Amino acid sequence: MNHNMKKHEHIGLLLVFFGATWLGFALYGTLLAANRMLIQNMPLIAGKELLIFPMFYGIGAVLLMLGLIELRELRPGKNR
């Protein structure tokens, strides 16, 4: 199958997908931790669990931005 996408554009699409997925995991974890307060006798997050949120948000944002940088030159209908 012939296509006009280059290798770095495929990598950019994968990076955008993985970045959005990591941000989704971070959002899910944040909402799960916020709902822990509603359950009686459930301990709140503390210690090393607090490092999970910056890790997911940080890695997700970096992957998303790297993917968008790779896709900057990809325009619909652009002659190649």
Based on CA atoms alone, the radius of gyration comes out at: 18 Å
**Relative helix content:** 55-70%
Distance between the termini: 16 Å
Q: How many H/I helices?
A: 2
Fraction of residues in β-strands: under 5%
Shape: elongated
What is the mean pLDDT? Answer: 84
Q: What is the number of beta strands?
A: 0
Question: Can you tell me the number of structural domains?
Answer: 1
Quick take:
With 80 residues, this protein is mainly α.
Looking at this protein, list some descriptive labels.
mainly alpha; 2 helices
Written overview of the protein:
It is built from 2 helices and no strands. The protein is an all-alpha fold. The chain has one domain. Helix 1 packs antiparallel against helix 2.
Helices and strands in order:
Elements lengths: L6 H29 L16 H19 L10
Helix pairs in contact: 1-2
